Structures are given as C-alpha cells and as structure tokens.
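User: Can you predict the 3D structure for this chain?
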Amino acid sequence: MKVTLKIWRQADAASKGAMHTYEVDEVSPDMSFLEMLDVLNERLNAQGEEPIAFDSDCREGICGMCGLMINGEAHGPEVTTTCQLHMRTFKDGDTITIEPWRSDAFPVVKDLCVDRGALDRIIQSGGYISVNTGAAPDAHAVPVPKDKADRAFDVATCIGCGACVAACPNGSASLFVGAKVTHLGELPQGQAERDRRVVNMIGQHDHEGFGGCTNIGECTAACPKEIPLDVISRLNWDLHAALRHGK
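Assistant: Here is the predicted structure, written as structure tokens:
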C-alpha cells in the first residue's frame, strides 16, 4: 500500500503549528497505525529530519497513552485505540489526516503529543478510596452484590485516553469523570467519600477548562472501551445528592 499522510507538526507549545504532507509506500495492511508512523520516522531519521513525536507505550490497547485524531475521528474509523488500529482499515492511495487531540484542556506539547495531565489532576482530586482498612482483607470479606460488582468492573475499564474529550464538540470530560465516579460509587468501600468525591472531581473538571456536557453522545461512540453514556446520568445524580446533603 501507498498512503499520503497530512500530519500536524508543532515544535513546542509556544510555536505555531502547520500541516505537513508525507508519502509512505510499502505499507503492509497488517501494520498497526503506529507501526506505519514508525516506518515514516525511520525514513525521516535516515534523511536527517526531525521525527514526528507521538505518544505510545503498551501498544496493546491497555494503557491509554496513544491517541490521535485520524481523518477527524478520535482513534480513527474503528472503535479501538490508535495502537490497535491497523492499516487494512484504509485503502491503497488513501490520504490520511493526522492531528493531536483538540481541546483547551489538552495543550499540545510537540507535534501529535498533548499534555493530558488534567485527567490525572481530576483523579487526584477525589478518584480514589482513602479509607484506612488496615491489612489487606480477604477478597470475600466485604460482600458486593453481583450486579454492582459487574457494573463497577465494566466502567473501570476506562483507560483515560481522552478520546471522549477529543470527540466531544464541547470538549467535556464528563464520560471520564462519570466512569470513575460510577466505578467507586458502586462499591461499599466507596460510600464514605461518595459525596465529597463527586463534588471535588467535577470542581476540578471545570477548573481545568473542560466544557459542559449536552448529551450529544460522541464521547461514548469514540470510547475504545465502550463506556456507556448513562455514567453521566449517574454523575449528575450523585452531584445533586451531594448538594442536597450540603457537601
């Protein structure tokens, strides 16, 4: 395969960026999208040019590090992570536009890399359980109803990649926050801090500059872990309950 890549290049956060065009041939349909970018970077290195910076780590769809806007879609046309998107999704001769996540809360660091530290700060504001339980209890010591355990496991699959933010026209991280609040709120261990957690996490979300949710649904459509939209309803429910309790 041969593809034409239009890639956003930006030297650093303070520099003005622009799209650059590259031709890449001998692309195997079995390559992942990031492996195809590796091939391009090897060529750029050989030519003495600056390689394209992009985030990646596990390349197994687990860590959430990778994330690109591909032809205007978060992670590309498949519901998966960028590292698990394969070139067989595209056709020989295609032109592919590649950009970083677009959000005021995710400033560009270099080229396709963005700073997603805002999501970490939301977790630090309350996305945890700090109850002192002493030594590690037996796994079955605190009974959890199966429906709640299943729900907690399902929403805990969020990997914090930021695709929900990039896909949302408002730049909202409500799906991310909703997944974390729902995960911990379903567990008995999470009840002691439930009100304070949701108030603090939403407060940090707004402080970081994320937009408000208007239930468009692009977030869940782009989510590689298919986090359901109803976690945002749970988020709003918990917030209203916390405000009623005077938190």
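The chain has two domains: 3-110, 117-244. The chain has a mean pLDDT of 95.
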